[in-house]
Amino acid sequence: MDKFHLFPPEASASAHQVDWLYFGLTAMLIFFCAVVFVPVIFFCIRYRRESTADRSNPPEGNNLLECGWTLFPLLVGLGFFVWGAALYYHIERPPRNALQVQVVAKQWMWKLQHAEGKKEINELHVPLGRNVELTMASQDVIHSFFIPAFRVKQDVVPGKYTTEWFHPTKLGEFHLFCAEYCGTNHSKMIGRVVVMEPADYARWLTTGETGRSVAFEGRRLFHEKGCSGCHVGSSVVHAPPLEGLYGKQVPLASGEIVTADDQYIRDSILLPGKQISAGYANVMPSFTGHITEAEIMQIIAYLKSTGNQPQEKN
Amino acid sequence: MMEADSATAIVIRTSGEMAPVSYLSCDHSVRSWLLTTDHKRIAILYLWTLVLFFAIGSVAAAVMRLELLTPQGDLVTSETYNKLFTIHGTVMVWFFLIPSIPTVLGNFLLPMMLGARDVAFPKLNLLSWYLFICGGALALWSLIHGGVDTGWTFYTPYSTTYANSHVISMAAGIFVAGFSSILTGLNFIVTTHKMRAPGLTWFRLPIFVWSLYATSLILVLATPVLAITLALMSVERLWGIGIFDPKLGGDPVLFQHLFWFYSHPAVYVMILPGMGVITELITCFSRKRLFGYAWVACSSMAIAILGFLVWGHHLFVSSQSIYAGMVFSILSFIVAVPSGIKVFNWTATLYKGSITFQTPMLYALGFIGLFTIGGLTGLFLASLAVDVHVTDTYFIVAHFHYIMVGGMVMAFMGGLHFWWPKITGRLYPEFLGKMAAIITFIGFNLTFFPQFLMGYLGMPRRYHAYPPEFQVFHVLSTAGASILGVGYLLPLLYFLWSLKHGRAAGPNPWRATGLEWQTDSPPPKHNFRQTPVVTGPPYQYRAEEDEDLRIANI
Which of A60, A87, A142 sits opposite B385 (nearest CB)? Predict the structure, then answer.
């Protein structure tokens, strides 16, 4: 990890593709530099004052030439736009069936929890050859989860969830950096990503303090925090039942229809008045200050597990 | 050297008339300087102020580069390091780069290039300088009382809720200095519209005037947005009114949209005037009319307009919608085109020229090289998937320093050398000037080129300590910075020396064609003895006419 390189290791499926785009852009840079620097140097030599080169009939402009050097760079640029945008679309949209890891960022550490329950700090262990998706939240300021060897980076923004995914293709240890300035110890908010053989990863998940699965913890919290007092079918309080809700369309009192995703559930816990389900009164108290980002993520995982998604093992 | 026999302007000089007293020697009292409304004296006031701020920003950079010699953060604490890059960023952006060419060269030259006695609102011009001083004083106050550690970008909620430093006074300083920008922009726009000499139509204007005009439009339209943004940030920080902090119901990414809606156009404020200067230098030292005048003039305006539509390219990994990212990406590729047009036209201008390599020309050629690399690496960042990897790394740091230092500061130095004889009436030592230009070019590349490489390797910016594998690049960069420092100190010394000991310049040492060269050096208080009348397009240079000089030289 700490050896000198001129080029970063390519350790994910998209790293290779990003590098090709980078090489393409570098070729473009060299091409346009040549187009400018070669004539500049040539003219500076040929038309230095001491030379007796022919200077008769100097041109004052040429609209054809102007159109040429307007349109050609524009077309080249649009080509690179399409290339970069297509790859970005691929990098930014997580695939289905990815392993889920939850990340909570705070000044100045990364707290991570695997779906199976294993927790780690400033380290991320992942299996080789599997898609891994991170769901990230920040407890304070903006951070950014950056793994140079995977060519991925995503800001972790307080107040919302962001996601990042990758497909590791190389065993080894790689840098994890916080890339968005977050205060005094920003440069100490670093760690490592360890890519392991899937069998080793499975063994690693069960060693040490493993705890219960995230969804199991979520179910415990769902009762402990009092959610179940209102949000189950048998409750006397008129509140929307939440089992199986995840991923469904929810009509709101405002007439809008939203999808019950991570962000919706998070907002409903912390800012219950923001989006009221149609047919219900705004009676729920906010849990701001009574629940941590990690706990909310566990409850979301639990609600997810009660839906159509395959039941996760406890 | 000989005077130009230019067809651009006819300045009637009555023989036997006493030469009017120059703007420098008409009154030597301090009061006459502090209460002056003469655009030329105000330019000098700005020059001294900017030298001071440039020195502060440079010292901060120097300490940072020393710290980064070793991977461990061992020279200063993390807190100090964070304050250093904040000082460097805020001071260099708002108190040096944005005002640099417009307030010094722009103030001095705009009325002279237009054939006018002064700007449209001379008192407002002086007020602009005082506002700038007040803003600068507030910024210095916050530095002396412990500094600010938010970075020059003031990202929320760090700046509003978590930073434990003098954010408000710094923001107030920038807020006040912003009014100086707005008033200067307003002054320049009105001056360009209303004060042109008889016969000086829009398409006879020097490109420097076009670029100042485009810059002024940005200053007037964008700076208020910065003022609003900083005000909202202060309201949240002072009274906890939720705007950006999600704990108070705000949206932290909204701040980034507002901030970059100003700060991206501001990047063009930091480069457009430089492009104007370069056009003046290339034409003069190749003795050629500008190739494709209308294209170069209109590309300034295109940059000013398109520059307002690309702010979201700073937010590709911020959680902004990926579709918004695509729109901002394509617009960012498009905004590069007018800059390319300028570079190609400068290149074509050299064709069939009669080129000499005095100091200003060396800076201009250096500008073309560095700006081209800076601009093309900008396309790496416009390209979405690559930006995800390199944003917030040293790749970004290298890219914008190629534009701002390699571009704007090179242009500023080139322009300062070019017009120094006009401003002071004295010539600087040419050999030392050439040395400084070459040292600056070498030092700059050694400082910033390694940063591209370590940026792609993944070295994040704003890191006080870093993994040891990056050390080689940091050592190269620090070595380059010390050479760069020599390149800046040298001109400071010989410019000061030349004030007393430089040879008298005469009205037009470069045989240049602009109206400013048709009057004495230093110019009289009211610039021209009589209002010039313009009868033709600018840059009436004729390379063929250098034939006699060639023979004389051989």
Answer: A87
Q: How many CB atoms lie within 10 A of CB B69?
A: 14
To which H or E segment does residue A137 belong? Answer: strand A132-138
| Angstrom distance (rounded) from CA B388 to CA B374 | 19
Cα B48 from chain centre: 15
pLDDT of residue B6: 43
CB contacts under 8 A, A 258-287 vs B, are 271
pLDDT in tens, A209-221: 777 888 888 888 8
Work out the number of other CB atoms within 10 angstroms of the CB of residue B188: 26
Contact B73 A80 (CB under 8 A): no
Backbone torsions φ then ψ of B315, nearest 5 degrees: -120, 25
CA pair distance B279, B512, nearest whole angstrom: 12
SS (H, E, C) B276-341: HHHHHHHHHHHCCCCCCHHHHHHHHHHHHHHHHHCHHHHCCCCCCCHHHHHHHHHHHHHHHHHHHH
- Give A47's contacts in chain B (Cβ within 8 Å): 286, 350-355, 543
ipTM for the assembly: 0.91
Contact A66 B456 (CB under 8 A): no
Backbone angles phi, psi at A301, to 5 degrees: -60, -40
> Which of A113-127, B14-28, B242-256, B522-536 is predicted least confidently?
B14-28
Q: What is the pTM of this model?
A: 0.92
Contact B337 A184 (CB under 8 A): no
- Is-contact B378 B244, C-beta < 8 A? no
As a whole number of angstroms, the distance between CA B413 and CA B274 comes to 10
Contact B341 A69 (CB under 8 A): yes
Return all residues near A305 (Cβ < 8 A) that are at least 6 apart.
A215, A218, A219, A311, A312
